[in-house]
Design goal:
The chain is mainly alpha-helical. The protein has one domain: Arp2/3 complex 21 kDa subunit ARPC3 (Orthogonal Bundle). Helices cover about 75% and strands about 0% of the residues. The protein contains nine helices and no strands. Helix 6 packs antiparallel against helix 8. It is globular and about 60 Å long.
């Protein structure tokens, strides 16, 4: 059995190392894009593109999408401090990632259904953001369950704004995911 030149090249450890290095650099850049976009949008309270990026990254990179998500989380913490407000950032993005992991496993969804579905999923995450964040805050401040519910209700107008922003940004999930898949295929071809 003869080995092709391509098979031999793929087996070279340096080639795999270079590919992994390229992948890590790409994930660092994607996480930085999340961070920069969040900072750029701070002038509009609770409106940002994080849901868009998390969805597109997850549809493209699947489990590895956690890398740029947590690059963003740790860069945000490094700049603004790793205080108690930051701790929910360790888990608050995971439900959105999990939803897109699940929905991304269904390959044959028509685009005319994908776009509104993805928009809706992002909007629901925005609407539930306060409820996801509240349990840790309640524990931190020693709030009762009723006080936590009151906190969630008081923050609902901000969550509605968050949901509307995520709904609008969600229209770009499919085009961004397709662009990322093309770029990823290009990187794999040239590795």
């Amino acid at each position: 059995m003869r080995l092709s030149t391509e098979t031999i090249k793929e087996g070279i450890p340096e080639r795999r190392s270079i590919h992994k290095l390229k992948e890590l650099v790409i994930f660092a850049i994607l996480g930085s894009i999340m961070f920069i976009s969040h900072i750029a949008m701070m002038w509009i309270p609770n409106v940002h593109f994080l849901g868009l990026f998390i969805a597109a990254y997850t549809l493209t990179y699947r489990v590895k999408a956690l890398i740029p998500i947590y690059v963003y989380v740790f860069v945000y913490g490094a700049l603004y401090g790793f205080s108690t407000w930051w701790i929910p950032y360790l888990y608050v993005w995971l439900p959105l990632w999990a939803l897109f992991m699940l929905i991304g496993s269904f390959k044959n969804i028509p685009v005319k259904i994908k776009i509104p579905l993805f928009m809706l999923l992002c909007a629901l995450h925005g609407l539930s953001f306060g409820a996801l964040y509240a349990p840790f805050q309640a524990w931190l401040f020693g709030l009762s369950f009723n006080a936590m519910l009151a906190w969630i209700v008081a923050g609902l107008p901000f969550d509605v704004i968050h949901a509307i922003g995520n709904l609008a940004a969600g229209i770009l999930i499919v085009p961004l995911a397709e662009l990322l898949k093309k770029l990823d295929a290009h990187v794999h071809r040239n590795s």
